[in-house]
Protein: HNH endonuclease
Organism: Rhizoctonia solani 123E
Amino acid sequence: MSNSSVGVSAPFIEAVDESESNNDSDNDPPYQPGQPTTPRSRWAARVEHNTPPQNILNQDGTASDAAKTRLTQRSHHGKICSVTFSVRSLECAYILRRATRGDELTTLEYAWGVKLGTLNLDTTQNMMWLSPHLHCWFDSGDWALLPPEDDLKKIRDTSFNQLTLPNKTKFTAVCNRSIRSYDFVHFTETTEPILRADEPGSVNYTMHPPPFESLSPVHSHINPYFAICNVALKDEKHHPKLVGREPGQYATLTTEQLGRVRLCRTIYALWVMQASEAVGAAKALSANKSRSNHPSAHSSTSRRSNPERQAKRKRNDSQDNPGPTSTGGNPTRRGGVKSSALDNSPCTPEEFVNEDGLDLRVNDFNSMEEPYWNKVRGWITNLASAECPRDSGIGRFEGTMSGRVPQADAQVS
């Protein structure tokens, strides 16, 4: 590691590079102008006040000026690269890609306690400023920001405890807005170092060689929920199947970091296994809206304009409002209070985690007497037979992580 002093004389540049060529890579829509990204159902298109038009049909492929302004205001150091502290040629990077499909967003909305059709990918909790080369490598899956372990455990416990609940605690109430310390984790081996200012605005720079152990944590405003998706999908890309005695190793990560990466993947699996329930909730919402829009379903009073409601609908980017919020519904089911289904389960969620290694930590893989997801399947089956005999929902366990959850006969670790 060596130090060098560099004068900073370039002006503060506001432009975002949109010159990338069209391709079929995993890059965000800013590299694919005009590409339809996340087509939503017609009822979802009515909530453009919360979900920007780019999330429905991308027109210009860039974040709005208003979104960029909010991002600068929310960022820990303002408009500056989150990793290198550079102020030149910055680009707006998305943690959860704007190209995420509509059905995937619906599942996340359901699992995160968000009103269906309103998850705003242009919230500043899903964006950060990056230098062009780091943005390119980020979108390519080379690196990610790894959330703190305490947040991951809290999210895991909340997601598990509320797995069978229709009304879940909203993600912004579980992890409210704050500046958190994220580890810079590089999944691919490289020989190129990272040059970082010793502090924002400093003319002194330090060269950090790979695997970047000397790079201090990145202090960021992004929400761990979005970061978990980003880490899990990148880990799945590099290691689609986790098999063998030491599955899915990275030469660039410590054992502790690998444990957190796999914990992100486990949490993400808990979310996406609720796809069938999310579809059912979306259909029910659509049916309710259709009935409410039928002329016979309205009295003259109910058809009158509600100024307060209209004002709420016009609020822009409601997910950028600070402080925790709830999803409404039954208040007794907030905060992980167990339902009758969980009360009748053979063991508590905490005991289940301790017994079966829900964390998917590397050291726990070999201690399992049977595949991990087979136990999850059995647990859900017991709940389903006791609570919901008509629809056990076991079908959601079929397929790989790409189809959301590993098959029961696969040796998942």
